[in-house]
Amino acid sequence: MTSALDQFNERVDYEWGGLKSTGYPQHYPKWVERLKEQVDLWLHDEAFEYLGFRKDHHFAEDARELSVFGLTERFALKVQITRDPQNPGLGNVRWELVPRSAITSLNATHVPAVAGGRWLVIDAEFGAIKAESFPEREDTNYDADARRAIFDGLRADLYPR
Length: 161
Fold this sequence. Notes:
The chain is of the alpha+beta class. It has three helices and seven strands; from the N terminus they run ααβββββββα. It has one domain. The longest helix has 15 residues.
């Protein structure tokens, strides 16, 4: 099983690689490193069933707003980052981690898939985490079966047997 931290680090490198410094050795801003520490601390011995990254600009280094939403077997995580336009290395990080059992609403919509067919986009709320939609229609990391498995798991959280 790949750890939540390994999954997070891999996606950070892919999604936010442009945030690394240009000097040698390259490093991420301190807020990214602190975020990795939080993931390691709180999600140790967990693995992400879903992990999505969003940004308000195509390139992370030009984005002012970045966010992460993830689900493990036990937790839902929402992280929102607002970067300082005067000093992009600074970021205001808002971290929300709640048990998946905090789910208060669940809905899904079938949308046209990028590669044809139809995929689910899930809408869910988890107490302090309000109205999250995922996976995005364009997110090819999650095929129709994976999306259905995520929905089924959340349905079981909302309506336990």
